Amino acid sequence: QDTIRVGITQNNVGVDSYQTTYEQAFIEAAEADPAVEAVVLDAGGDVARQIGQMRDLIQQDVDVIVIWPTNGQAVVPVVRQAHQAGIPVVVTNSQIAEAGFDFIASFSGPNNITQGQYSAQMMCEALNGEGQIVQISGQPGYTTAIERQKGFEDELAASCPGVEILETQPGDWNREKSQRVMENFLTKYDDIDGVYSGDDNMGVGALNAAKAAGRDGIAFIGATNFAVGYEAMGRGEYWGSVYQSPVEDAKNALATAKAVAQGEDVPFLNYFDTPKITQSNMDEFSKPVF
Amino acid sequence: MTKLDIQSGQAAPRLGVPDRDALRETLQKQGILIAFALFLVGFSLMSDRFASWDNVSTVFRQVSIIGTMALGVTVVVITGNLDLSVGSLLSFATVLVVDLHDQIGPAPAILVMFAATLLIGCVNGLLVGYGRLNSLIVTLGMLSAIQGLTLIYSGGQNVDIADQEGTWFAVFGRGFLLGLAVPTLIFLGLAVAFHVMLTRTSFGRRVFAVGGNPTASAFSGVRRARVVFSAYVLSAFTTACAAVILGSRVMGSQNNVGQGYELLVLSGVILGGASLLGGSGSIPKTVIGVLILGFIQNGLLLMGYPYYAQWLVTWVVIILAVWLDVASKRGAFFTRTS
Amino acid sequence: MSRVAHHTAEELADLKHRAPLLRLDGVTKTFPGVKALDDVSFDVRHGEVHALLGENGAGKSTLMKVLAGVHRANSGTIHLNGEPVEVNSPLEAKARGIVLVHQELSLAPELSVAENIFLGSLPTKRFGLVSWKRLNAAATHILDRLGVKFESYDRVGDLSIANQQMVEIARALVFTPKVVVFDEPTASLTDAEKVVLFDVIAGLKKEGTGIVYISHRMDEIFTLSDRITVLRDGQTRGTLNTRDTDEDGVTRLMIGRSLDKSARKAAPEPGPVALEVKGLSCGDLFRDISFSLRRGEVVGMYGLVGAGRTEIAETIFGLRAKDGGEIRIDGAPVDISGPPDAIRHGVALAPESRKEQGLVLGMNCRDNMSLSQLDAVSRGGWLDRGAEQAIYDEYAGRLSLKAPSWRTPVRNLSGGNQQKVVLGKWLGVKPRVLIVDEPTRGIDVGSKSEIHALIRRLAAEGIAVLVISSEMPEVLAVSDRILALYHGRLAREFAAADVTEDALVQAISGL
Amino acid sequence: MADTLASLRRYMVIPPIWLFLLACVAFFSVLTDDFLAPGNFTNILIQTSTIGIIALGMTVVMINGNIDLSVGAVVALAASLSVGLQDQLGTLPAVVVGLGSGVALGLLNGMIVWKTGVDAFIVTLGAMIGVRGLVFIYTGEQSFFAMDFAYSDFGMSTIAGLPTLAAIFLVFAAIMHWVMTATVHGRNAYAVGGNREAAEHAGVRVGRHMVINFMLVGFCAALAGVTLSTQMGASTPNLGRDYELWTITAVVLGGTKLAGGAGSILGTLGGVLTIGVLRNGMNLMQVPAFYVLVVMGVILIAVLFIDARVNRRGAGELRL
Ligand SMILES: Nc1ncnc2c1ncn2[C@@H]1O[C@H](COP(=O)(O)OP(=O)(O)OP(=O)(O)O)[C@@H](O)[C@H]1O
Ligand SMILES: Nc1ncnc2c1ncn2[C@@H]1O[C@H](COP(=O)(O)OP(=O)(O)OP(=O)(O)O)[C@@H](O)[C@H]1O
Ligand SMILES: [Mg+2]
Ligand SMILES: [Mg+2]
How many CB pairs under 8 A join A and B? Predict the structure, then answer.
């Protein structure tokens, strides 16, 4: 047996650029590696479909399965099934529930909690430890949204008590929705010093609203630096974000999977680096492609 | 001839006080307006920001996208059909216009987008109008197909307008005219146009006739297929207009920006009293329906409830609003059905 | 269920002097803008057929709906067997033995005949299972009594209107009712079915059931009824013993004057041929039909239900594809593709089924009337409301339409007035060729003669008119010539001058 | 007896959608190798069972002239309760509570539709939003995970070679078919949907009848939520989004009229399986994700189109 068959079931390709770019990068990396053959599936955001795809991959007896969980809890039983069938599972991008840790070989991806913490630290810095902010979170019920919010809130409370979160509302990863939410915040609060949003897409929506209302002096902090966020940062309108490369994410996942399949020892939590990006250090990063 | 018990005297004149009746009739039909007013008062009492000019104009601006789409959908619903494809059509149109903006310039981008969107409207119209296919499934199929087309077109990537400050395209979503936001003006302007079309033109009359009784309209010489076809083209048209507002407002687009809008738009239309069975509906009430949706969201946000509590309140408010409407028409709060 | 004891003839005679079976007192009912019933009192005795008469919109159906619990009266009382009763729902009415055979069909199309007959009280086995055996046996029993040609398990949606009406009537016979109300039961029945219905009524009468019978057909009223109550404008104008009165007396009470039976003027010299049909055929619906209509002429088309008259009209109007033959208008052969095309060629068709084909029920009276001529009442797509109003005013007047206002949705009009809106809609078109299919179904005697006069007047204005009717008096009253159809073929053509009733009956029966 | 047979025969008519189902099966069997594998069929059955179970209840509600848009949210609520309460109550009681929540919400929807006379579309649209709110309040945005692996093992178990979930679906379909064709309640559904006034005048307790149907569809949605959560051994608050649209699509494909009065469980079964086969077949043919959406849409419309051609009435039909 010379080639390694890697099966991947992704969350929801096409719903945002990050996932799309991730998929392309994963396929490219797999094609570039003669030792790897990839079966690429997409769950379309539907847990039930993802479970079906996991079963299909188990049926096909691939050498290793990479899963980008549509939901961290719901996939645990099927991951356990794979484990029982002797197929190692690598979780990518967002973590599964703790109950499933026994059944996975490794996690490869960003640490969303840390990302939330980074954002909190940047917010603290931007406001000099003093001020009132609002938070626009991702789609309710999704792991990434929950983890980033948790990391942000906990860190802020712990290390920056002078900054108060006035209110949190979901922006559903949608720029227009977030723009609407921000417009309402602006009506409601005369004094907003900073905005934390679960990703830059929503952050730019919030920025749009603030610019339209002529409200200056608000520090915008996001996560998952998008091209629009990067550009706004270049214009000095956006304070900072967390740099997370889908290409890195994909490569990391594939490398972990390959290593697992070859029986190498890999760290259980194989985080890849997602550094802070701000107006002052943005030159060190290339503009995101999405 | 034996008369058993003929009543004596002339028949009393019939009770007919047309003016008062007409007034009562008009008032009775405005249950939804009353409901709307009640909510506005309620929200104003609970949040001092609510009744400000700033806030009201913000809400108008916010509902203008859904509202504009609802105008076309109202026409479709009056013909007795559904259009569930508008949500993904909005995504398609917005992605297209934003993406083309940087490639061929704003004016050509708008033109091409309108052409493509209207073309899809024509497909809907051909299938439901001339093909007489079930509109629910046709437009749901189209919802899926258009979503796929959008993703294929964009390759799944977000699209953005690079130069956001320098383009006149910004005026549609961000501009102001005479102190009013351009999106609001587009929405209300189109609403007036659609209202006039539905009430003052023979086309409008045909729309109501086809929805009210397709067979009888056909017997009367109304071309059902043509009317339904036109309704879908109009729906695509308003969606294209909404896409211009959306694209310009956000200066970018995700592939799924319109996801779920179909039901939101439809709720606005139905809140306004249009019947899914066709034959009834009105533009002013659709506008009110959409405004109710917009003000609920805005009002609840201003009051700062967590989002799921907002959903619960929305549940209650939607049903209460329509209940008030049907109860006022019926003249009783509860039905007599056993 | 206890059966009502049979009465001997003497007992029956005696009953008339007893307390009434059913008494309605001071019933008032208003709808928005209309006082449909104004202090109406009315009673029915055991074993009596009590006819209810009145113009369209007089309030007959409304009164019966109050009785059957469909409408709730503003005031008034109901006594059954001398006891005051409340009837707040159809269910309660049914429980008290009051059955209403509706003027408008009220059947569930997907269900079988048997299921429709026993709707609301399907016989069951254990676990709420339908007992098909008992259901079909019981239904067949009733259907046998009615002598119908369909089976208990046929789908109601597949039946003709007449047969659906028979199902509706069958419903009244399920239980031994105390009071049965028939609201224009014969409007869409053929003579054969009418005979059956009258037998049924006679049977009910013998059992002591009280019967209310509503109809606009005087001959039926005088054949069946014992007493007649006349309603006018929602008020009782009087109750008469049938044998003490005659048509003229009742009519005068009803419309305030005698009918002018000599409405028929001498036919003016007919003009050139407006419509010519040669060898027209369509599947097995009709074959080889040839006739012509001249301007200024009224031609009647007479035949039994199912003879294919409606289909011929629909084919001329472009609603069906012909598979043979030719249609000429003003001498030029035409190929009419559909109603818009027909209207363009000056052909108008007032269809037979007002609810399905004639009206948009939720739309107001005026808009319904102008729907057939939207192009004529609009300029460049803009509606001219003045022109619409003018049409409405003219034909509401000419047809003495009784509607609260032009804004009233036609749904809220009485059956006969709905029919008038259908007619107005097509008369207003001022066509070259006017086809009216069963124009006076459900229309009161007064308006009927007005409509006949109107048809004559339109002809005199130069229109060629084809009147399709199942009522011989109507055909005889309006036509210059009569076409008799039998089984999709033209059996004979008569000139009005030399037609006899017998010859006509023979012709349509294929003799 | 002959009468009974004759009257039953017309309820056993094979709805046209089955022909397309056969055509689809033939198509995919020819074009892919794996389609005909027995494991694949059970896969399709499991995958369609969720939408399928909801569709059974939806068929009844739609035949009687209403609609229920809240089923997707009820799926999430029932799944969350039956997984989330397992720790406190134990598995079986938790499932009972989950199913009960669906019935209770059905009761609520039904009572509102009955008493207020507000259109079912609006009532259940409100519920679709509001019930999702209940789910989020109860779960606090969290997904739940069944510690008891027996729960998810149940979802993967088989009875006599047939997956348990598929068996539940098929048995339930048989029961519902019987309810709709042989019981008074089922027959009344056609009467209420076909001519509500007539049914009311004939003494059918229309309001109560509708409430029962809403409770039924609520139960179906809850049952689907439970079976879905046994498949995952977990629940998520976003479970069941969009399910209402796909359920209604399957039901309408199966020949049930949106306006009520006509339809059948057999047809719905065909509609559900058709959608399932299409999805599965496209997966096997490895149609790229974006194209699946397009193909799915086009096929839905094509099915209707062919159906309209096949069922076109003869010369008796008017050219309207
Ligand atoms: N549901 C309703 N809403 C409003 N007005 C109504 C309604 N039903 C009847 N009416 C009005 O009540 C009056 C009496 O109508 P009704 O149907 O009782 O007449 P009718 O005597 O049965 O006439 P016809 O011989 O034409 O059947 C009419 O003016 C009609 O317009
Ligand atoms: N024996 C029958 N069984 C079922 N349906 C019938 C039967 N005869 C006629 N029909 C249907 O009844 C309707 C009326 O028949 P048709 O239009 O052919 O008759 P017509 O000559 O126009 O008579 P009328 O105008 O009195 O109805 C048609 O839709 C026809 O298909
Ligand atoms: Mg009447
Ligand atoms: Mg006829």
Answer: 78
- Give the minimum alpha-carbon distance from D172 to chain C in angstroms, rounded to a whole number: 17
Q: From the CB of residue D228, how many other CB atoms can be counted at a distance below 10 Å?
A: 29
Span C172-190, mean pLDDT?
86
Please check whether residue B75 is in contact with residue B81, taking contact to mean a CB–CB distance below 8 angstroms: no
Walk me through the domains of chain C, giving residue ranges and CATH numbers: 9-97+179-255 (3.40.50.300), 111-175 (no CATH), 273-508 (3.40.50.300)
Buried/exposed code over C253-277 (b: 16+ C-beta within 10 A; e: otherwise): bbbeeebeeeebeebeebeebbbbb
C56 ligand 1 Cβ < 6 A: yes
Q: Which CATH number is B53-323 given?
A: 1.10.3470
CA nearest C71 in D: which residue? D201
Q: Could you tell me which chain A residue has the CA closest to the CA of B252?
A: A175
pLDDT tens digit sequence for C390-423: 999 999 998 889 888 899 999 999 888 999 999 9
Q: Kindly give the distance from the C-alpha atom of residue A124 to the centroid of ligand 4, in angstroms, as a whole number.
A: 84
Domain with D250 in it: what CATH number? 1.10.3470
Instruction: Name the helix (H) or strand (E) containing C495.
Output: strand C489-495
For residue C453, the distance in angstroms to the closest alpha carbon of chain D comes to 32
Neighbours of D316 (CB within 10 A): 11
* C462 SS3 class: coil
Structure tokens at B142: 């189209």
- As for how many domains chain D has, the answer is 1
ipTM for this model: 0.87
The tokens of C56 are what? 């369209």
State in Å, rounded, how far the first CA of chain B is from the last one. Answer: 47
CB distance B105 to B159 below 8 Å = no
Closest CA to C86 of C72, C100, C104: C72
- Structure-token pair, residue D29: 């069997």
Compute the distance between CA of residue C341 and CA of residue D206 in angstroms, rounded to an integer. 45
> If 0-12 CB within 10 Å is exposed, 13-18 middle and 19+ buried, where does residue B185 land?
middle
- Look up the domain containing D277 and give its range: 2-319
**Inter-chain CB proximity C108 and D316 less than 8 Å:** no
Judging contacts by C-beta atoms under 8 Å, the chain A residues touching residue D152 are 77, 80
Sort out which chain B residues have CB atoms less than 8 A from D296's CB and list them: 141, 144-145, 148
| A44, closest residue in chain D (CA to CA) | D289
The whole-number average pLDDT for the span B302-326 is: 86
Ligand nearest to the CA of C312: 2
Q: What distance in Å separates the CA atoms of residue D131 and residue D105, rounded to the nearest whole number?
A: 9
Distance of residue A141 Cα from the nearest chain D Cα, in angstroms? 5
Distance (Å, whole) CA B61 – CA B291:
10
CB proximity list for C168: less than 8 A, separation 6 or greater: C101, C102, C105, C106, C107, C185
Q: C272-323, pLDDT tens digit by residue?
A: 999 999 999 988 889 999 999 999 999 999 988 778 899 999 999 999 988 8
Most confident segment among A1-5, C10-14, C493-497: C493-497
Between CA C452 and CA C476 the distance in angstroms is 11
Query: What is the C477 CA–ligand 4 centroid distance (Å)?
Result: 19
**CB C26 within 8 Å of CB C76:** yes
Torsional class of C24: left (φ above 0), alpha (ψ -120 to 50), beta (otherwise): beta
**Chain C contacts of B1, Cβ < 8 Å?**
240, 244-245, 249
Residue C230 DSSP code: E
Report the helix count and the strand count for chain A, using DSSP H and E.
Answer: 9, 12
> Residue of the nearest CA to atom 6 in ligand 1?
C412
CB contact under 8 A, C244 and B219: no
* A141 vs D145, D237, D283: nearest CB: D237
- Measured CA to CA, the distance from residue B188 to residue B76 in angstroms comes to 19
Indicate whether D5 pLDDT > 60: no
